[in-house]
Amino acid sequence: MIVKTVKINESKCNACCKCVTACQEGAIGIIGGKAKLLNGDNCHEFGRCLSICPTKAITYEEVEETIKDAAASRDNAENRKNTYARQRVVHEPEQKQTTQRVSQLYQWPVHIRLIATNVAYFANADLLVAAECSAYVYANFHNDYMKDRITIIGCPKLDDLNYTEKLVDIFKVNKIKSVVVARMDVSCCNGIENAVKKALHIVGIHNIISSRIVTISTNGRVLEMEK
Questions:
Q1: What is the DSSP letter of 42?
Q2: Is residue 151 packed enough to be buried (19+ CB in 10 Å), middle (13-18) or exposed (0-12)?
Q3: pLDDT the model gives residue 92
Q4: DSSP characters for 178-207?
Q5: Cα separations (Å) of 124 from 8, 120, 176, 202?
Q6: Torsion of CA 83, 85, 90, 95, to 10 degrees
Q7: pLDDT at position 201, please?
């Protein structure tokens, strides 16, 4: 069987990070100043990385994959993920006088329904699970809550998705160091808080890792921080 796989010419790569942010599957990261394919199983061949690369360092190559190769690829996905430490792409501010704030988002995608559970950036991560509205209403959300954390967002009122099942998979597959839940002071946000608490109990780590709930009012004030 002929399959396509991403090929990166490191000599052309200038570490601009555009491919990392374009890849919604988290398959590409920056290691040692060069783009790397972190998890080929997450590459769905959408081609965003190819079209956005300014130096044309990324191409597809066709390889022949046997049934045995395909099975080994699936079996070794977890081993390949653990080969790499969590890779965070930090966009440094330009060296000039500016009041523009720097984004503290370290991965893409961010929505819980799009995120794969076995990507490298979850390894030993401090996790932020946030209601979608929270970042809009709280002015300093990036620096106060997203900084140094992997961020995933959702809205249980609008999403037709079992958050608990997805979070259980994340907690089972990865060693998460801590969890912060940022929610609004509205009843529909009970769903995102309860999903995190239930998932931690199901996996049996609710008394092992640090976790807290941050409740934000609709006028942007932090009302309480529950352990």
A1: G
A2: buried
A3: 45
A4: EEEEEEESSGGGHHHHHHHHHHHHHHT-TT
A5: 27, 9, 5, 19
A6: -100
A7: 95
pLDDT in tens, 107-147: 989 999 899 988 989 999 999 999 999 999 999 999 999 99
pLDDT at 55: 93
Bridge partners (DSSP) listed for residue 182: 130, 214
- Which alpha helices (DSSP H) does the chain contain, by range? 18-22, 48-52, 67-75, 77-83, 134-137, 141, 163-173, 190-203
Neighbours of 122 (CB within 10 A): 23
In 26-162, DSSP assigns E strands to 28-31, 34-37, 58-64, 126-131, 150-154
Spatial separation of the C-alpha atoms in residues 42 and 81, rounded to whole Å: 11
Look-up of token digits 């988002």 = 105
CA dihedral defined by 103, 93, 49, 130, rounded to 10 degrees?
-10
Q: pTM, whole model, 2 decimals?
A: 0.58
Tell me how far apart the alpha carbons of residues 148 and 104 are, in angstroms, rounded to a whole number.
7
What is the predicted pLDDT for the residue at 62?
76
CA distances from 75 to 13, 21, 171, 212 (A): 30, 27, 19, 35
Instruction: With a cut of 90, say whether residue 47 has pLDDT above it.
Output: no
Given a cut of 50, whether residue 77 has pLDDT beyond it is no
